[in-house]
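ping. complex inputs:
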Amino acid sequence: QSSVTLFGVLDTTVQHASQAGASVNRLLGTGGNQISRLGFRGTEDLGGGLAAGFVLDMGLNVDTGAGLPTSENNQVNAPVAGTTFNRRSTLSLSSRQLGEVRVGRDFVPTYWNITVFDPFGTAGAGSAANLAQGSLTRLSTVVTGLRASNSVGYFLPAMHGFYGQAMYAVGENVSPAAAGTRNDGNYAGARLGYAAGPLNVAAAYGTTSLASGDVSTGNLGASFTAGAFKLMAQFYRDAKEQVAAPSRSRGWLVGAQIEWGQGYFPVSYSQVQDNSPGERKAVQIALGYVHNLSKRTAVYTTYSRIQNRKGAAVSGGGVPSVANATWTGLDLGIRHIF
Amino acid sequence: QSSVTLFGVLDTTVQHASQAGASVNRLLGTGGNQISRLGFRGTEDLGGGLAAGFVLDMGLNVDTGAGLPTSENNQVNAPVAGTTFNRRSTLSLSSRQLGEVRVGRDFVPTYWNITVFDPFGTAGAGSAANLAQGSLTRLSTVVTGLRASNSVGYFLPAMHGFYGQAMYAVGENVSPAAAGTRNDGNYAGARLGYAAGPLNVAAAYGTTSLASGDVSTGNLGASFTAGAFKLMAQFYRDAKEQVAAPSRSRGWLVGAQIEWGQGYFPVSYSQVQDNSPGERKAVQIALGYVHNLSKRTAVYTTYSRIQNRKGAAVSGGGVPSVANATWTGLDLGIRHIF
Amino acid sequence: QSSVTLFGVLDTTVQHASQAGASVNRLLGTGGNQISRLGFRGTEDLGGGLAAGFVLDMGLNVDTGAGLPTSENNQVNAPVAGTTFNRRSTLSLSSRQLGEVRVGRDFVPTYWNITVFDPFGTAGAGSAANLAQGSLTRLSTVVTGLRASNSVGYFLPAMHGFYGQAMYAVGENVSPAAAGTRNDGNYAGARLGYAAGPLNVAAAYGTTSLASGDVSTGNLGASFTAGAFKLMAQFYRDAKEQVAAPSRSRGWLVGAQIEWGQGYFPVSYSQVQDNSPGERKAVQIALGYVHNLSKRTAVYTTYSRIQNRKGAAVSGGGVPSVANATWTGLDLGIRHIF
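pong. complex structure:
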């Protein structure tokens, strides 16, 4: 009568990536359809609509058996080595009426629109994050782009389709501190959405305080399901204060998941650009097919292509980035949920 | 029909600590009421009163999802990085008549009185370890203050209230070795106690051999339950050989857990001093309240204050230590056992 | 109804090792009878003879609670620190008719004959690996001697006693690359065997591409069970290209597991030599007894002695290697399967 549930995803893809004549073949163990993980979770009913719960969620490199790093201070990642519960490590008190208070390490509110409204779920060669969190964005300069440590979060209770969350996380610096370093690594953000029937729409905004200049990001996403088509769109912009241009970046994506046979086709078109003098720009087109062998197991393939323009050098998959060169990535993978 | 049981504690506290005008706000994920952990354990009945068993117990920083380091040689801790079974990693053979032989990494016998007879269970802002294992003690110079690797332990069987254990652990040095380094990291210690009805009393003594000078520690603790009051006291002294003063330290604690409503108040007064010329001294007063939401889940708060005198600079919670300055810590936390 | 099974082995031995007057006493937590581990596995029946499955298998140092390192590129091991699924981290699709495709980190085909046909199962003082993967062999210069990351493997289905597997693993280097480094860390190997009634025989061959010179290894093993005797033999040779002698090494082992009472005696004689001018040579004699307390729990002892000749300096167990000196190891341990 253990009060713990194990859960996880193993997803590995044979990936071929190339750019400007260079190429790499890899076995990518973090996943090309869903991100690989091993987790432990539990809940306890405290009565009166109140519950306690926890999640410990460990990222996995299935290709090597290694884990992934976390951050102690939201300023830099710790050096990699063993496994950590880098994805999520949280303890919660929740009330059916009042919502949930959640402490620990968690995804930041500003991450969700990027992944929920990406037909590829920010996994693999076609991930929206290739652009949205790639080298052309200001968001690529913070470790709080996906998750924050030392956080306290609040989630709204169920409210007729409205949902929302806010998070505050700290860098745990000593005060008084050198100018500008007091809040180094602090994150504050929120997300608000509405989901009903075929529609889901949400907006988020957040800021990370950094000694090198605060980075803020805002985004907006929506999906609409019509028969076999789940249409998706997202828009984002981010900015770094107190630095010369390129100090801002913005991008958008349109895409869909199209049911077909035992699976679906994810497809997306996205672009990102910064405010450097020439306005560097990258455009990604991605197409895949996910074939379900069961509810838990699928095989899939993804083809993605990023065109770099006006000096942009977005890359991925381990190939060195080259300005104005086209990157292509091809995934052939297996995903298993347990 | 797995023979493994998962167990654990997640405990996180929002902690404010300050000393001499400096302060830090942190989310402390190792725990303020019980120490955060995730474990795996199992036992096998071998018949005839004999059993085999194991425990793998991993410390957790819930605030970051990171683990905690262990020591390979009982001389220094390994560099941190991923999760390890730093708390306990043991394999046992036990007999109902003869007791238990336990090998691996485990808590040292000399640790138990410090934590069992502390109203705060050596967790959080009010921990007895703030003084008992703090910078003023000689024990703070060994990594075997809490646990030892490479250990063989023996535990007495149930004996009409008497209990006891002995441990020998090795630093695994090559012999012959440079003068004084042969036994570097070896630990030997024992604990003996008696528990019956409202009374529990125990004494322990242990020595760690170190190239820089052997460190020995002895302690004594007792608790007595009278109605809603569980009174506790402990005394300890430790010494480092072959070094100039401060070579010795000693301290004591009196405290209680006082049942109240759905919870209890932990309260303690403790002090420690060394044998430096001025006899540096630190005094801690701590008061808390633990409110049980269920048997497994509680919310709690602790206020603790350490006064440093005659040059002492005991600190905690991430603020830099300042001689003769008063340290204060405040916890507001949640603890969940699973 | 979790779809995950936990499994593992905890095995620790008090080991005394000595060579040329130097000695070390250790608690060896990786195991002296079976290798210590903690794992998670699951399978899903996909219908039509098809199944998906996974294994996450973490090596353990029970003596310290630490884990063991893995390799990211099959060229060097990552620096140790926390736990990793270094033993195995794989995702599979398997068909009863067509066999199994397995991706991730796994044992290399060329490892199996060394361990399956060793009476000591390559664990503890008497391990065949002391010679077969020791300092006299060319195989000791690759990290793919036991396992490879970034691998795709194929396993034959059940075929009237025939069994077999092939593996290809990559170092994930960028192409084009400096001369000789394109395939650095790539491994290719295969194993084919036949098991029926009392007989089991298998051969394996594999090559690791390295910038410093490719290393290939081939081996052959067999076992035959006759009453209480399980006889075992193995032969291996390995070679490193493009280096001066010693560039080759070869060895063999004969041994047996002899059932006796509630346990068995493992016993082996093995030797290895290289092609240095003097043909350095090491000979190991090992004898043990494994006493089963149950199917899952055993106590055991092993005595092993390695004689070094003609300049060989094979050692083990943490004592510095000395040319032409005799090494002895003695284990006294407990093994518990869960």
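The mean pLDDT of chain B is 95.
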